[in-house]
Amino acid sequence: MSKVLIIGCGGVASVAIHKCCQVSDVFTEICIASRTKSKCDKLAAKLAPTTSTKITTAQVNADNTDEVIALIRSYQPELVMNIALPYQDLTIMDACLACGVNYMDTANYEPEDTDDPAWRRIYEARCEKEGFSAYFDYSWQWAYREKFEQAGLTALLGSGFDPGVTQAYCAYAAKHEFDQIDTIDILDCNGGDHSYPFATNFNPEINLREVSAPGSYWENGHWVEIPAMSIKREYDFDQVGHKDMYLLHHEEIESLAQNIPGVRRIRFFMTFGQSYLDHMRCLENVGMLSTTPILFEGKEIVPIQFLKALLPDPATLGPRTKGKTNIGCIFTGKKDGKDKTYYIYNICDHEACYKEVGSQAVSYTTGVPAMCGALMLLTGKWNKPGVYTVEEFDPDPYLDALDKYGLPRSESHAPVLVD
Ligand code: NDP
User: What is the ipTM of this complex?
Assistant: First the structure.
């Protein structure tokens, strides 16, 4: 019996909203609010005849804390699900604190304007201190820990697949499979084909920023940073087959390094086809991935935002995408004094997702964990005051919910390891 405000109505939010509407006994009322209200209205009209969840919609610019506060005060939700963009994480957290409401999101904070001198000073000091140069990190949101604790509120960070389910897999392995985890390899494989020469599976700006950045991994207590795409491996993924994958920096490595005691190494690999990499390199070389505004015919434009306008909207890839995703974690470590390996992963079929909720599997594998994270908070399973990432909670009810609502786990106790 809960009232939830969902901010954002893009690819991921649309799946999460479909899923909330399948669990109407918990999500009794939802308000879908986004910058473009017409998208919220369209989705609400589609879902209303299929669900007993009461759906309303609203317009909000979540960059503006006061607008979010006004919306929360008028709607009075128990939880705000931030499924807009990482740029809005802090403004929405501020609004939740001001109104005494729990918070969750699917990606950690990163600024829209990476040329902002005030932000850049802090960023450069962090690069120096920590040893990785990604624009996003947890420090901004961890800085809210005390405020959420004092307010008696919970903020759940990063409840998508990766971050999100991958951390629950780590917590599960630590709880049930190992006495000591030595290494974690997170493997994110998308074996889907949408037949466009180039498109990104989620927000192009966020996606291209992430994959064009230097890679990094955690080893023996510190970060090792490497040039973008310079570590490549091949892996034979269950139900997908052989794929090339590349080591990337990824946000959950940062929190796992703190929360998995004694872990020696954590790496993240994502699969990319050659055509994707060639397009990305070319776009980068001509300056199209830049976030620095340029003057074009008297008007200021940001190259990566212009590129976003040209590329296919990820939300439209659903009907064209065939194949499967396979995302999971491979562990090495010890149990009862003996060496042990373990692989836990999910396989998701693009066409089946489209049939169920009208979206491809990349949105689906993020939107379902967003709903399941909200379910944990709304049913009292994951409530503790403060700011937490997924591995800091009991993984069992979350993985049970994922099994039930569309992302069942698979396991292997003798996986092929990544060298
Ligand atoms: P989309 O670009 O498809 O959707 C973003 C939505 O947020 C749109 O509805 C957009 O509105 C809205 N929005 C943007 N800015 C504002 C604003 N200032 N105020 C209100 N609404 C706003 O993104 P995705 O659905 O692909 O991604 C959503 C989130 O999920 C991102 O944070 C992304 O990083 C994260 N993600 C996490 C993954 C994981 O595994 N953890 C994997 C994939 C994505 P409008 O329509 O007006 O543009």
Answer: 0.98
